[in-house]
Amino acid sequence: MTSIGIYGSLGRMGVAIRDILAVQGVRLAGGADAGDDPAPLARDADALVDFSTPGALEAHLAAARTTGTPIVIGTTGLLPQHHALIDDAARDIAVLQTGNTSLGITLLAGLVRAAAARLGPDWDIEVLEMHHRQKLDAPSGTALMLGEAAAAGRQVVLGDVRVADRAGLVGARAEGTIGFASLRGGTVVGDHSVVFAGENERIELTHRADDRAIFARGAVRAALWLADQPAGRYTMDAVLGL
Q1: Is 192 among the residues known to form the active site?
Q2: pLDDT at res. 98
Q3: According to the model, what pLDDT value does residue 127 have?
Q4: What is the model's pLDDT at position 212?
Q5: From CA 131, how far away is CA 186, in angstroms rounded?
Q6: What pLDDT, on a 0 to 100 scale, did the predictor assign at position 150?
Q7: Is 207 an active-site residue?
Q8: Quick one: which of 121, 124, 103 has its CA closest to 240?
Q9: Quick check: 226 and 234 in contact, CB under 8 A?
């Protein structure tokens, strides 16, 4: 039986993953949190999931690389230097990095990519997200993932067309840009919408998360899938065969 270890086991997602493992009868290899040595868990697990912090990523990747253990990275707020570490580790181990482990969000990103590829730049794209008041990063990792999907559909680089701040007199919207709006409040688990606004018509693609368990289920499915994959960098698309 494949065993799964959790980095960030005491956080919201870590606890939710533990619950899903118990329900599905998947063996828990253990957990590691801030201040713990990540190496023993990497040795004991067949696959790892990381929902800790960006600052812990380098040590977790190093431990996984030493033992050859596949790792699913769901930690958000990653910077370019973190992605460089992931690219480097993926030469030796299977790494799946995603801003959202929900299977529904994964499918939504595919729909966004397809819509962006088929609609011209005269269709404005806006990515809207809302999360609970405790969320630290904005836009969310999922919003950025959806923005990347839209940019990929248009065959452009998101960093070149991204607009995340419209405070003040910013003027008319530039054609081809991809806008982001972030809302925070209450206990919202995660709402995401991508709006394609054309002349006299709109297309809105939306996903709403009602329970953190959807992310835990997706993370477990991703880890079980990744355990059998060769070294390389993967996304949730591969888990669903998209």
Answers
A1: no
A2: 92
A3: 98
A4: 83
A5: 8
A6: 98
A7: no
A8: 103
A9: yes
- The type of residue at 231 is A
Of residues 60, 82, 131, 207, which has the active-site annotation? 131
Chain center to CA of 167? 27
Cα separations in angstroms, 173 against 118, 138, 178: 21, 21, 10
Report which secondary-structure segment, H or E, holds 48: strand 47-50
The structure's pTM equals 0.79
Task: Return the amino acid letter for 104.
Answer: G
Contacts 24+ apart (CB under 8 A), 116-121: 116/149, 116/150, 116/151, 116/152, 116/153, 116/154, 116/196, 117/153, 117/154, 117/155, 118/153, 119/196, 119/198, 119/203, 121/154, 121/175, 121/176
Tokens matching residue 27:
């063996």
The residues of the chain scoring below 70 in pLDDT are none
Q: Residue 7: its pLDDT value, please?
A: 98
Question: What letter does residue 55 receive in the DSSP assignment?
Answer: G
Closest CA to 49 of 9, 79, 78: 9
Q: Is the preceding omega at residue 80 within 30 degrees of 0, hence cis?
A: no
The whole-angstrom separation of Cα 159 and Cα 83 is: 15
Q: Which of the following is catalytic: 60, 82, 132, 135?
A: 135
91-132 residue pLDDT tens = 999 999 998 899 999 999 999 999 999 998 999 999 999 999
